Amino acid sequence: MKGQVVLITGSSSGIGRETAYRFAQTGAKIILTYNKGKARGEQAEKRCRKLGAESTLLLHLDVTDGKSIKDAVKKVLKQYGRVDFLINNAGTGIFIPFRKHTMKDIERQIRTNLEGLIKMTRSFLPHIKKGIINIASAAGKTAYAEMSVYCGTKFGVRGFTQALAEEHPRLKICCVNPDMTATRLTGYEGRPPSEVAEVIFKTVSGMIKVAHGCDVDVWKIMK
């Protein structure tokens, strides 16, 4: 992975941050993004450099904002001229009974987890050279109570990924599906995010074989 340009959304914390660290260790060129956590993003970028990243680029990115996405494209192309791998990791979830969801709760999850991921992919697609990895979820394969909207978005990510792969057979396109992972989203309960990052890295690097457009389930790999 040395010298390859890897863009990871939502990489100021959690799975995204650990994924950035894992690729940095191989000498990749790391593009990190944050939405609200600028200080965390700066710390993650600094750590990537210490771990051996050939270079880094830290961007403010709100995947629910089309202008923010367009600005990110311009900055990435200015510095690197391409993206080898796009890892769509940014996401959010609200885990309460559906009847208690507000309209804003619903919009936030759909616009971040599904619409934002699709728009990021569309905007960067002409500049992606090797592959797209979409971070879906175990909740995109099995429905869970009090996760109705979140499940809907993650099922949608998997459907989008499968269709996209049909259109672009020369790119590596697949989903990585974490189970419960210790991030802010879960109250820091679950497996270490570094384990998910390792699965993402092995998927991108080809150490884990996956059929085109299909799923890599973290819990099956990290038994």
Terminus-to-terminus distance:
25 Å
The number of distinct structural domains comes to: 1
CATH superfamily: NAD(P)-binding Rossmann-like Domain
Sequence of secondary-structure elements: EHEHEHEHEHEHEH
Quaternary arrangement of the chains shown? single chain
Helicity, in percent? 40-55%
Give me the number of helical elements: 7
Mean pLDDT: 97
Task: Please characterize this protein's 3D structure.
Helices cover 44% and strands 17% of the residues. It is of the alpha/beta class and 223 residues long. The chain has one domain (5-221): 3-Layer(aba) Sandwich (Rossmann fold), CATH 3.40.50. Strands 3-2-1-4-5-6-7 form a 7-stranded parallel β-sheet, with helices on both faces. α4 links the parallel β4 (83-88) and β5. The two termini are 25 Å apart.
SSE layout and pairing:
Blueprint: E1 5-8, H1 14-24, E2 29-34, H2 38-51, E3 55-60, H3 66-79, E4 83-88, H4 103-124, E5 128-135, H5 148-167, E6 172-177, H6 193-205, E7 215-217, H7 218-221
Parallel strand pairs: 1-2, 1-4, 2-3, 4-5, 5-6, 6-7
Helix pairs in contact: 1-2, 1-6, 3-4, 4-5
Give a short synopsis of this structure.
The chain is an alpha/beta fold and 223 residues long. The protein is built from 7 helices and 7 strands.
Features:
44% helix; 7 helices; globular; alpha/beta; 223 residues; single chain; Rossmann fold; 17% strand; 7-stranded parallel beta sheet
